[in-house]
Structure formats: structure tokens, C-alpha cells
């Protein structure tokens, strides 16, 4: 069901993806990747509060979930919450110090 939901997201069928992920999480609320995927679908729908809640739920299950960290940092950055984004970007940099995207985002967040 998770892969099908990801395929729906890729195809732009976001409501179908959210519906599948809702069912998946109802059956097993400890699937961090499902929260990340549903959060991404919410993000694409500009449902920012729901996306944020799902990314945070994924990180509560696994604080090193790189995709959830990146999505949350991006959400915060792109909605003008740079101070909120910084600790997540710093965590990403600690996990993958060679990642150029993370380095660039950290630079954007720390430059004046």
C-alpha cells in the first residue's frame, strides 16, 4: 500500500495517496515513512500545518529520518520560518556533511 501511495503522489493523485496512507497509518501508526509520504502529499496540496505535523510525527519515531528532516526544513524555509528550519538543517549536515544541498541551505539560513 505504501508503494502504491508513493506512485499516486508521483502521478499527482494526492487525495488517493492521502487516503491510502490514512488507512496504512490507522493499521500501523508506527510507520514513519508513511507519515513522511503523507506529509509530502499534504505539502504538495499546500496543507502546511498537516504536513508539518506528519513530518514531526515521523521524526518522533526516528529522529534521523533524513527525508522527514529535509522536508520539514524545506517547509520551514519556504514559509519564512528560517529560525525553525536551522536546527533541522544542522541535523541533516551532521548526518550527511558532504551533501551540497544541505550545505547550501545552511548557508542561506545563516547568512544575513
Explain how this protein is built:
This protein has 7 helices and no strands. It is about 80% helix and about 0% strand. The chain has helices spanning about 1-10, 15-25, 30-45, 50-60, 65-80, 80-95, 100-110. The protein is globular, with a radius of gyration of 14 Å. The longest helix is centred in the first third of the chain and has 14 residues, at about 15-25. α1 runs antiparallel to α2 and α1 (about 1-10) runs parallel beside α3 (about 30-45). The model has no long low-confidence stretch (mean pLDDT about 95). It is mainly α and about 110 residues long.
Which terms would index this structure?
112 residues; mainly alpha
What would you say about this model in short?
The chain is an all-alpha fold.
SSE topology:
Elements (H helix, E strand, L loop, with lengths): L1 H9 L3 H14 L4 H13 L3 H14 L4 H13 L3 H14 L4 H11 L2
Helix pairs in contact: 1-2, 1-3, 2-3, 3-4, 3-5, 4-5, 5-6, 6-7
Helix count equals 7
Class from helix and strand fractions: mainly alpha
Radius of gyration (CA) equals 14 Å
Query: What is the overall shape?
Result: globular
The fraction of residues assigned to DSSP E strands is: under 5%
Average pLDDT: 96
Largest sheet, strands/sense/barrel: none
Report how far apart the termini are.
45 Å
Low-pLDDT windows of residues: none
Got a strand count? 0
The percent range for helix content is over 70%
What is the succession of H and E elements? Answer: HHHHHHH
Amino acid at each position: 500500500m505504501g508503494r502504491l501511495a508513493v506512485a499516486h503522489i508521483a502521478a499527482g493523485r494526492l487525495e488517493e495517496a492521502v487516503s491510502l496512507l490514512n488507512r496504512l497509518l490507522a493499521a500501523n501508526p508506527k510507520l514513519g515513512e508513511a507519515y513522511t509520504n503523507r506529509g509530502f502529499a499534504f505539502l504538495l496540496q499546500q496543507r502546511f500545518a498537516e504536513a508539518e505535523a506528519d513530518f514531526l510525527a515521523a521524526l518522533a519515531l526516528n529522529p534521523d529520518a533524513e527525508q522527514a528532516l529535509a522536508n520539514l526544513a524545506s517547509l520551514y524555509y519556504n514559509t519564512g520560518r528560517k529560525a525553525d528550519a536551522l536546527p533541522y538543517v544542522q541535523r541533516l549536515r551532521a548526518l550527511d556533511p558532504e551533501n551540497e544541498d544541505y550545505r547550501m541551505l545552511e548557508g542561506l539560513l545563516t547568512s544575513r
